[in-house]
Amino acid sequence: MKMSGAEIIIKLLERQGVRTIAGIPGGANLPLYDALGQHGGIKHILTRHEQGAGFIAQGMARVSGKPAVFFATSGPGATNTLTAIADAKLDSIPVICITGQVPLSMIGTDAFQEVDTYGLSVPITKHNFLVRSAEDLLRVIPEAFRIAASGRPGPVVVDVPKDVQMAEIEFDQWPEPGVPDRTPELFAGEIEHAAAMINRAEKPILYLGGGVIQSDSASQAVAVAEKGAIPAAMTLMGLGSIPSGHPLNLGMLGMHAARYTNLALEECDLLIAVGVRFDDRATGKVSEFCPNAKVIHMDIDPSELDKIKTAHASVRGDVADVLKALLPHIERQNRTEWNSRIEALKGAHPMLVPGADDPTSPYGVILKAAELAGDQAIVCTDVGQHQMRTAQVYPFTRPRHWLTSGGLGTMGFGMPAALGAALAAPDKPVICFSGDGSIMMNIQDLATAMEYDIPVKIILTNNNALGLVRQQQDLFYGKRYVASNYGKCVDFMKIADGFGINTYDLGNCDDPEATLARALAAPGPALVHVPVSPDEPVYPMVAPGAANSQMIGGENHV
Amino acid sequence: MCRQTVIELSVNNHPGVMSHICGLFARRAYNVEGIACMPVNGGQTSKIWLLVDADDRLDQMIKQVDKLEDVLIVERYDSGHPVFAKMAEFVQ
Ligand SMILES: Cc1ncc(C[n+]2csc(CCOP(=O)(O)OP(=O)(O)O)c2C)c(N)n1
Questions:
Q1: What is the number of domains present in chain B?
Q2: Is-above-0.80 flag for pTM?
Q3: What CDD domains does its record include (chain B) (predicted)?
């Protein structure tokens, strides 16, 4: 066979099963785009900003669990992708970014649109490549897929100089598509030791994180919880592991957890950490996190074990394998005393949801949208109060239906990630909760939604402020609202209209519930505008750096 | 005086490997006191020796280094390595 580097890339992507790629062309990746056009098997989504392309890829990867690909040209195209790549790194999402680069002979000369993509992406990728010959592509592309999806998943950057894309080479055979490495062998002793500790514990709690979602082991986690009657709390990334209505579900822990969740963790005698990394938003002040508990930590990434908290027992392995191996060793128990203690905590310190019945209130609109969208809906958020409210009250029922920027906390994540989710799961409703600050960060991709008629429903709670920042100023900076209120209002209805998106205003209608229902039922993308007050805090809240037991707000005074 | 340790790495040999390794230490404000690097077996792979202070973050650093795709083998020499003794002669 004789082919150019660009054709080889496109064919290899097809062989990996890639069907949709988001991106933006430019001089340095035009050969790649030309090959994409000639070879036809892959749909391309032309975004309006490369960061949007990166988040579309993330949306596809988070929903499907498979690596997704995006394209950018050299220089500014590549730098525009960095936030989306860093975001994927912190949340362990398998995406592959293929960038164009200036020709090899010009690298290092400050050529037009040259930037050191390799150097810039070293600290924010799982691995990266600067491809030096067309032959190398036959090895590098399958490697990129293997690395992105193996072990703890993560982003990979492949930087391809223009002359490498254009070089024609002869070769005999296609390489095998890259597949994830086999999961590591478990140590039977580690499993038995952990099981013994669990069986002995009187007040154990499961602490489930993104690793449970990534390894598709939510059902095993539920099985372990049920067999041992072990209540389970989840991190922001772990939501969906246990259905919200399940009696053992404790909801999200940490900075914006319900009071009873953090209080139960205070009392537990064994913390069973599964696919979590003891992030400070989850643990609060680490030295005071679960003060009475022994810790078992299960993770595929050995560098997470003992990183933040030294475990009394660690189990290295893919958590799906670990939970499967663990289940037969778990004694069937009722733990009646512990579970009735938890019920008492729930009764005494419930999650208070102001405005739950009002579809024009910040919480109410989330609950009403959930009811109308049904349990198949995929839910995305941006970053802010709306995100934390959604995490607190949305009735999640299954994994891979909750997409949020957990580790990096990137405003601008929600809408393009929702586009990716809708592309990956065209048969499911997709809702995105956003704020007026966040939506601005990638608002240009409303045009992408319109152009490809991607049916995402954006529910914008507009407080004309950077709500979560304002809340911190309210609580910790003497109510000095510096740079967190917008002086004037933007007309989001007109803006969305200008982008060709259907709009619905809950603030200006007779029957908000019916309007919301119409918006969710209508075909195509829609923006639902919900004016809300900037003075509605998200409670409870743990101050950054404080112990989780020191929650502010959300007390039950009855 | 800090106790020092030598980490010996077998790595793929291509431009960029060094920046992955050194970047890892630099990002965590962990100083690398000495570096030696030589290609082995015709240059497909190299050996890198790093002389570092053995503080309590070292175990975590070694796990992080081990995770790098281009790092094939990591060995640790807590009682030093002759490579740095020989090198010391050149910098007296
Ligand atoms: C890119 C980026 N810049 C800044 C921040 C800091 N930040 C966190 S929340 C927030 C306010 C979000 O406001 P909005 O999207 O309107 O949501 P709200 O809190 O009002 O619901 C800001 C500025 C961030 N997370 N991401």
A1: 1
A2: yes
A3: ACT_AHAS (cd04878)
